[in-house]
Amino acid sequence: MLYKIELENFYSIREAQVLDLSVSPSLEDTRGRFAAIFPGSTIRTPKVVAIYGANASGKTTILRALHFLSSFISSVNVESTDFRQPVYTFNDEESRGKPIRLAIELGGITNPQRDEVDDFKPEFGTLRYELVLRAKDGKIERVLWEAMRQRPNGTGRWQRVFERTAEGDTISVKDSDVFPMVGLKHLLKTLRPDASLISTYAYFNHPTAGFYRETASRVSSNVDRRWDFISGDNALLGFIGQQPELLKRLNRDLSRIDVGIEELRIEHIPHLGPQGRFLHSGLHEEMPWELESRGTQAFVRLFPQLAFVFDKGGVALVDEFDTLIHPLVLPEILRWFYDNETRNPLDAQMWLTCHSATMLEDLVKEEVVIAEKDSAGRTRIYSLMDFKALRRDDNLYKKYLGGAYGGIPVIG
């Protein structure tokens, strides 16, 4: 479970911002909103993280950072000419000459190099991944620092897994028992200055690197439109049509949340490709995809992303969660993440941005993050947990709209 993120000089974030979503062990949780950051931990974190703020306040920047790190670690770019995920510093003269700094902390397995042993018993704790890089014109010029650390059982000092530094054209790496490089240091010659050590060594079948890359790949995101096929819905329909079980799950939920829809049927038509047809009760003919409501289309686009993390136990990054989807459907999707019995047995998380203030009536303060931008264009981020006087019975909806927490547009 992801519980902490640190950002500095990344898009609209100039000064270092730290967002720690650790939830107190003493807080009662009757609805299953929180999950232990690793099995057996007393520290928990929300399964749903909702980011609020005015337009252009930097909400998406938080999701973009998580998506960037996931792509950077999991992409196999050993032989490619450049890393395609764009990355920018804060847009002023001083910041453009400074490095970008990113870090995340999460719970996970701390002995992954033994996962192929027959009697393997996973040991859990906390992991910290740090990345410092220099960027220009939206591209990585050089990774200045990349490191993974761990705390077995989530206690004690951080222990090195690996540390990668750059001095001029020389790349140096310190390994560990968890990330051994015996007989593999020659692979440093293949390590590009703009590539991840994890992705590079995973490419050459380093077991620990492969484990970390696979973990990073369990992030689904619509920030780069990978799961949002607005410009090519045929690709979406083709993807769903090739997975009968996914289509079955989708139809089960469509019939619950969309009045009158009995089934989405997908067929391949020569020269046209996959075509979606909606069967509505009471209608003589099926409704083609392009004539279906935009809200239903948005739900279908979102569904594979959610199904992916429920199956993998990963993190869904959903930008503009409330766009087009009915306000009464939004809380239902939140409840899916709270449902460990049938929907979310692997404790998948969802980080989302939205504007729908009414959804605050279905959230608690541990789940709410605010992004606010000052007159100089600098974003700061904070959790409602930072408001110590905020009581459990306070109406988040009314107080947010009243400006008590910030993050609302100032008109006029």
Please explain how this structure is put together.
The protein has 412 residues and is an alpha+beta fold. The protein has a domain at 2-218. Helices cover 23% and strands 28% of the residues. It contains 9 helices and 18 strands. It has helices at residues 59-74, 93-96, 197-203, 207-216, 233-241, 244-257, 294-312, 329-338, 396-401; strands spanning 2-8, 17-20, 34-36, 44-46, 48-52, 100-109, 124-136, 139-152, 159-167, 170-174, 219-221, 261-269, 273-280, 287-288, 315-318, 349-353, 368-373, 379-383. The strands form 4 sheets. It has a 7-stranded antiparallel sheet with strand order 2-1-6-7-8-9-10, with helices on one face. A 6-stranded mixed sheet has the order 11-15-16-5-17-18, with helices on both faces. Helix 1 packs antiparallel against helix 4 and helix 3 (197-203) packs across helix 4 (207-216). It is globular and about 70 Å long. Mean pLDDT is 90; it is low at 227-231.
Order of helices and strands: EEEEEHHEEEEEHHEHHEEEHEHEEEH
Question: What is the C-alpha radius of gyration, as a whole number of Å?
Answer: 22 Å
Shape: globular
**Helicity range:** 10-25%
Q: How would you sum up this structure in a few lines?
A:
The protein is α+β, with helices and mostly antiparallel strands. 23% of the residues lie in helices and 28% in strands. It is built from nine helices and 18 strands.
Strand and helix map with partners:
Blueprint: E1 2-8, E2 17-20, E3 34-36, E4 44-46, E5 48-52, H1 59-74, H2 93-96, E6 100-109, E7 124-136, E8 139-152, E9 159-167, E10 170-174, H3 197-203, H4 207-216, E11 219-221, H5 233-241, H6 244-257, E12 261-269, E13 273-280, E14 287-288, H7 294-312, E15 315-318, H8 329-338, E16 349-353, E17 368-373, E18 379-383, H9 396-401
Parallel strand pairs: 5-16, 5-17, 11-15, 15-16
Antiparallel strand pairs: 1-2, 1-6, 3-4, 6-7, 7-8, 8-9, 9-10, 12-13, 13-14, 17-18
